[in-house]
Design brief:
Layout (H helix, E strand, L loop, with lengths): L6 H12 L40 E2 L10 E2 L10 E9 L4 H11 L4 E4 L1 H6 L1 H9 L3 E4 L11 H19 L1 E2 L2 E2 L10 H7 L3 E3 L3 E2 L8 H11 L4 E6 L6 H16 L3 E2 L2 H8 L5
Parallel strand pairs: 1-6, 2-8, 3-4, 3-10, 3-11, 4-5, 7-8, 9-10
């Protein structure tokens, strides 16, 4: 009787001689850094980032002590000095570059509340914001609105802070909660870390993409000393915000306003900056 070496027989002989099928050798993966676990939310690991030389020396955006751990919506300016802060949420994003170009053309400084995941995706835009003298604030990693445990809130804020520092060398204690939600746990965590929770007194509602003239009119019609203006450079198509920005800047300048960053505004209120 003849026996044919069928594929099944060959596989059995191979497994018998080698003690089973062995995997191909692979390069060992580094041990991952510890992460804060939360089902359904993708967060990067907390811990020490790889060695990085920031484009500018490490620095902290100094916030006067009286504002640490509190919520503000505007500044109180003595003698009604005409200062106003333009702020942008949800970037960096594709439209951030156009907004930065306009700010540079008009020599205006703004404050950007950035998302950690977008800083990771657009590191060059984040660095440009810092290098051109704009202030950076923490806007969480994922921009979630739901209630969060202290562990999740820590991951959202601390991972973003670490990414901002990795790309710019800046430690910021400015925080803006996504959607302005103050009672879902994330703002409470920020306050325990002495962040100033920065809200706003003028909402352009540009997220709804009204026409550029309406966006500009909402700012110019409500402008007042110490106002904080909410706009967006990320989270969607912001072409109408881009179109409105020169109108806003020119209109404010015609009204005698000086546009400053949030840290500058708070320092002026505290009497630490002329």
């Amino acid at each position: 009787m003849k026996y044919w070496l069928t594929p099944t027989v060959l596989l059995s002989l191979f497994m018998a001689s080698w003690g089973g099928i062995r995997p191909h050798p692979t390069t060992a993966h580094p041990i991952p850094e510890p992460t804060l676990e939360y089902p359904g939310i993708e967060l990067p690991p907390l811990g020490t980032f790889p060695p990085y030389l920031p484009p500018v020396p490490p620095r902290t955006l100094e916030i006067p002590a009286q504002f640490q751990g509190i919520t503000i919506r505007q500044a109180t300016v003595s003698n009604q000095r005409k200062i106003i802060a333009l702020t942008f949420d949800d970037g960096p994003w594709g439209d951030s570059a156009r907004i930065l170009d306009i700010l540079q053309d008009y020599r205006v400084k703004a404050t950007f509340f950035v998302l950690g995941r977008n800083v990771q995706q657009y590191p060059e835009l984040t660095r440009r914001m810092a290098e051109e003298g704009h202030a950076l604030g923490n806007h969480t990693w994922n921009h979630h609105y739901h209630n969060m445990s202290a562990t999740t809130a820590a991951a959202e804020i601390e991972n973003t802070a670490a990414r901002i520092f990795q790309e710019t060398g800046i430690t910021t204690t400015l925080f803006r909660p996504p959607g302005g939600f103050l009672n879902n746990g994330v703002a409470a965590y920020a306050k325990t870390k002495d962040y100033v929770v920065v809200m706003w007194s003028i909402d352009t509602k540009d997220y709804a993409r009204p026409n550029a003239h309406l966006i500009a009119q909402r700012v110019l019609g409500q402008a007042h000393p110490g106002a904080i203006v909410l706009m967006h450079d990320g989270g969607g198509n912001r072409s109408r915000t881009v179109e409105a920005l020169p109108m806003i800047i020119r209109g404010l300048q015609e009204k005698g306003y000086e546009m400053v960053t949030v840290p500058e505004m708070l320092a002026i209120q505290a009497g630490q900056l002329e």
